[in-house]
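pls design
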């Protein structure tokens, strides 16, 4: 990378390390089980390997910092792949477990991080058992993404996700019901989905407009379009969460309402 690119990556890493450190500071659950991609709200960041790599490194080292004081806020991006060589062996084991846990949740995207990629290459040569666990972790993530397995509902931020979602769903559902009531004819599924997209674009709904979440809501509304104009916001969220996770609604409601999902 050129000097400006290195400087940009360093700035991005520092910004996101601080974000994740703040996010994890008061978390009572296991932060390594966090659904990482849901916390990256920008498609451009997800599409750029350099940007995603810096953010993933920041997230992984912030997770490590939450478990063990790692000093991750004081390193430059270019130094990260070799910084683990200075870690005590027990801290390095913790780092590896975080990477393996995230591999099973985030999949191959976390290999955008040079830190992750360096550890994976080390396992491939020197640690067959851990490398085999890594391949199984990627397969687990792939099976969830392909809809073959149900995702685990043990993200420690599920309760916070539901709270943020309801803060946005409550006014949105009210608007949708008002729009539905004023229609001269009964709207069909396409009308409802079009109005939902309009309301999300027009209002301040960062959680709903997040690319990762918006795509899921589109899939949900295509199957259950009337739900957004017939039920309350809490009931709507429970229906959506069950649809998205493919778990039973009572189970998802319990998981999203518990103080700590892990």
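designed seq:
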């Amino acid at each position: 990378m050129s000097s400006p690119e290195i400087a940009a990556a360093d700035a991005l890493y520092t910004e996101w390390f601080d974000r994740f450190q703040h996010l994890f500071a008061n978390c009572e659950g296991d932060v390594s089980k966090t659904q990482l991609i849901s916390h990256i709200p920008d498609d451009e960041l997800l599409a750029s390997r350099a940007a995603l790599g810096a953010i993933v490194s920041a997230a992984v080292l912030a997770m490590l910092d939450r478990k063990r004081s790692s000093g991750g806020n004081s390193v430059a991006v270019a130094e990260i792949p070799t910084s683990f060589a200075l870690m005590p062996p027990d801290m390095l084991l913790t780092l590896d477990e975080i990477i393996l846990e995230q591999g099973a949740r985030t999949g191959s995207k976390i290999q955008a991080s040079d830190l992750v990629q360096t550890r994976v290459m080390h396992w491939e040569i020197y640690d067959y058992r851990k490398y085999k666990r890594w391949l199984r972790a990627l397969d687990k993530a792939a099976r969830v993404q392909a809809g073959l397995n149900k995702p685990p509902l043990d993200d420690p931020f599920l309760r916070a996700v539901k709270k943020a979602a309801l803060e946005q769903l409550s006014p949105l559902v009210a608007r949708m019901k008002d729009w539905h009531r004023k229609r001269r004819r009964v709207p069909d599924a396409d009308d409802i989905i079009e109005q939902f997209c309009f309301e999300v674009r027009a209002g301040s709904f960062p959680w709903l407009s997040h690319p990762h979440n918006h795509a899921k809501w589109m899939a949900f509304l295509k199957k259950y379009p009337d739900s957004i104009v017939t039920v309350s916001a809490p009931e709507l969220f429970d229906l959506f969460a069950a649809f998205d996770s493919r778990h039973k609604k009572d189970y998802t409601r319990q998981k999203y309402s518990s103080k700590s999902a892990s």
